[in-house]
Amino acid sequence: MQINRCYYNFLLQLKTKILSLHLKRLAVSVTFTQHKRQPEIPVKDLKNLPINYRVCYKFAPKEVDKDICECNRIRRDHTDITANDQSKWHISTHTKQYKNTSDYGRLINDALYVRLDIETKLEIIHKLLFNFWKISKPTLIISIIGNATSYSLSDRSESKFLNSIVNICIKTNVWMITNGLDIGIVQLVGQAVNKARLKNPDKVVAIGICKWGSIKDREVLIKREKQNTNKKDQYTSKTSDVNNDENNIQNGACDLEMKHTHYLMLDDGTYRTFDTKDFRSRLCKHITTLEMGNTPR
Q1: Rounded to whole angstroms, how far apart are CA atoms 188 and 178?
Q2: Which GO terms describe its molecular function (predicted)?
Q3: Distance between CA atoms of residues 30 and 26, nearest Å
Q4: CA distance 231 to 45
């Protein structure tokens, strides 16, 4: 598909600037459509969607600490603690799926979130995004991938990055996709998204794709006893500083970046790990394919 030269040059400038900020890479998938934006509706009950989460039930001791499982939970948190089990930990053999009946809703910043199995089919994610959350189909997807590490930039570099993101966001219906955590370059993305939404609130969608087990204070999101799924969860991110950021990274848990509009919290049964594998790239490819007219059945 031929991309408008103005957009093409603009994206090249953005890519150059982001690479200079020591990101691993910037992945940009572009598709232009004529879809009208749908108005957002209240949080919908997801009981009709096969949304699950995972729990590690079979204890597999680490080599360096025999009392800690490879999932980073202690022995007594498992139902199967067979002492002589030497099998290598794997999601298919050491975890079980459970129906998610409560771990979804709306945060205090109005962002929608859901905890879901990392192996959830993309067709189900599609229904969640478009049928339940009513997100408009994007004309532009920008996936920013960086390490979960703190960073140090000059004021000038930060300003250039922010302005580049803002200018793109206000020109088209864009999806910004990040790890959704309040650390590293995503902090700047959050600032840019917030600034862009002040200028054009209907066009900006920022989706954080993170690991459920990497979210600090995730217990606040667990709603086992809640009856009203439309009630906002009182999760708030803490004020960030470099020392806290480094400690959070070492502990394997970070606060959410609260300027995002949606969160997909992937669950593979492990805790204090950031790796979401290839989920994000597969989702971007899936959505891009849909926008080209090849809708999966």
Answers
A1: 11
A2: ligand-gated calcium channel activity
A3: 13
A4: 12
* Two structure tokens written together for 97: 């799926």
Whole-angstrom Cα distance, residue 142 to residue 285?
12
> CA distances (Å), 214 to each of 4, 33, 168, 179, in order?
39, 35, 30, 10
Phi, psi at 149, each rounded to 5°: -135, 155
> Is 89 in contact with 60 (CB distance < 8 Å)?
yes
Q: At what angle do helices 185-199 and 155-169 cross, to 10 degrees?
A: 50
> Position of tokens 């979960």?
148
Q: Between the CA atoms of 96, 102, 104 and 110, what dihedral angle is there, to the nearest 10 degrees?
A: -160
The pLDDT tens digits of the residues spanning 101-126 come to: 889 999 988 899 999 999 999 999 99
For 192-250, what is each residue's pLDDT tens digit? 999 888 887 777 899 999 999 999 988 877 654 354 455 666 666 654 444 454 455 45
What is the distance between the alpha carbons of residues 185 and 178, in angstroms, rounded to a whole number? 9
Closest CA to 222 of 279, 274, 267: 267
CA nearest neighbour of 29 among 145, 161, 180: 145
Amino acid (one-letter) located at 221: L
Asked if 154 and 222 count as a contact pair (C-beta separation under 8 A), the reply is: no
Predicted TM-score of the model (pTM): 0.78
- Amino acid identity at 133: W
Residue 2, CA distances (Å) to 5, 8, 167 in order: 9, 10, 21
From 183, 209, 194, 190, select the one nearest 267 (Cα to Cα).
209
